[in-house]
What we know:
It is a single chain. By secondary structure, the chain is an alpha/beta fold. The chain has a single domain (69-272), classed as Uracil-DNA Glycosylase, subunit E (3-Layer(aba) Sandwich), CATH 3.40.470. The protein contains 14 helices and 6 strands. It has a 6-stranded mixed β-sheet with strand order 1-3-2-4-6-5. The N and C termini lie far apart (85 Å). Residues 1-9 and 39-73 have low confidence and may be disordered.
Amino acid sequence: MGKNAALNPDLSDLETLRFYADCGVDEAILSSPVNRYDTSQSAETADNSRTPQHKAPHIQAAQPLSGAASVATVSSKELAGQCQSLEDLREAIEAFEGCSLKNTAKNTVFADGNPEAPIMFVGEAPGRDEDIQGLPFVGAAGQLLNRMLSAIGRDRSSVYISNILNWRPPGNRTPTLNEAMTCLPFIRRHIQLARPEVVVLLGGTSAKYLLDTNTGIMRLRGKWTELMLDDFGEQTIPALPTLHPAYLLRQPAHKRLAWRDFLEIQAKIKELE
Length: 273
């Protein structure tokens, strides 16, 4: 404001105010905030607030972190690579603070079933029931999965089940790219440590991130492919994308497609045996 007045030194205070009003100025703002309700603030302090006071920033030496606090500073890939057993991985995931989904979830959902089973199912993320119980596929979609397994002569004691994400996205929304990529090293290491003979990818999200593809699940399903796990030592596992049970609950007519895929799983295991 002072700049315009300086350009016209002959303007009176009243004329200056009129000039600002004509320009649309309706409020005078200082360069620094002033607490008008603080009666202890002197006029001198208020005047000094017009001129910014430049002070050297206070720099505090970094303190070394320890225990669970240090886990947040380690990337999920680095952390997963340090795990030499499934129990190591479970503990690492439970201590990990690098995914915001953990802040809204009730439980960390790691896995269910038999970790030594020849078949590993990988879904998308925990839902409401899974978040409450701390186990994957225990809700309505999980009940359907149980019936699908029974149809090929299996149950949860003869398969291993997990998800791309270990924490429930609020409202069961689709995981964001950042959330999925943060958790991806964990599930890739999970598969490596479990060493199943085949991996079944339940739904488009699981297939998208583990196979690194944008091809839709309807085009991917029912076709065997190779899941390359080279993050922590090269490993290749046969993988079959299929429809997610939650999708089948919404589109029951497509259960026939999933039935064909489960017959493919059954045939593949017999072939490998």
